């Protein structure tokens, strides 16, 4: 990316802007300001022979950009040699992450193609371009539908929120604990279930009275006494298994809707 010339089309504009934002840490290179609109500017002005390469682009807040105006960076920062040197050095360095990704991505792509599955590649800039084109808000789950060239021209989103599925595992399989010298500890392994319930089960709780009276649905963690920990979106609390009915037996995943 750093070597290419950038004035080619709308999509490339997105790619370049994302790259420049990433490279300079989304901050004004002169005063360090962030969380305000940043302008992409030329380090060496074009009017003084500065190139059209991405390596000649940096980020500045409006105030600093105005103050610099059409001057060369060496002139603008003549009183601040430390800042000047830092910027000139960073301008030449390609993104470290990008370098690491560049070294592996085509190999990865080739290997994926060998699976025979339809594979396509995209970029963060393309994702943002598609998201903007489709008028979608910035969320991870909607971005997942905007990756790659095959993103359709029209996208009807049928749900308001995604179902979040998180791998939670099946607990430990180790049947014997060892002490710090590696000798087995004389503790019998605990059973995986208690009173017909298992940690990770999704249950319905109907609690007739008391502080937590009401109906809840959530995930339980069992204990070997008749009070289980119920996580139902509110602060987890203890509940007696007699108030619980199983909705879904633990399969190693947690399911919930985002807020
Ligand atoms: Zn600034």
Short characterization:
This protein has 259 residues and is an alpha+beta fold. Helices cover 27% and strands 19% of the residues. Zinc ion is lined by residues 28, 30-31, 33, 60-61, 63-64.
What attributes characterize this protein structure?
SH3 type barrels; two-stranded antiparallel ribbon; binds zinc ion; 3 domains; five-stranded antiparallel beta sheet; single chain; elongated; 259 residues; alpha+beta; DNA Binding (I), subunit A
Strand order in the sheet with the most strands: 9-8-7-6-10
Task: Give the names of the bound compounds.
Answer: zinc ion
The CATH topology of the largest domain: SH3 type barrels
Count of individual beta strands: 11
Q: Mean pLDDT across all residues, rounded?
A: 85
> Secondary-structure element sequence?
HEEHHHHHHEEEEEEEEE
Low-confidence stretches: none
Radius of gyration: 28 Å
Category by helix and strand content: alpha+beta
Please give the domain count.
3
- Cα(first) to Cα(last) distance is 38 Å
Strand content: 15-25%
CATH class category of the largest domain: Mainly Beta
In CATH terms, what is the architecture of the largest domain?
Answer: Roll
Describe the sheet with the most strands.
5 strands, antiparallel
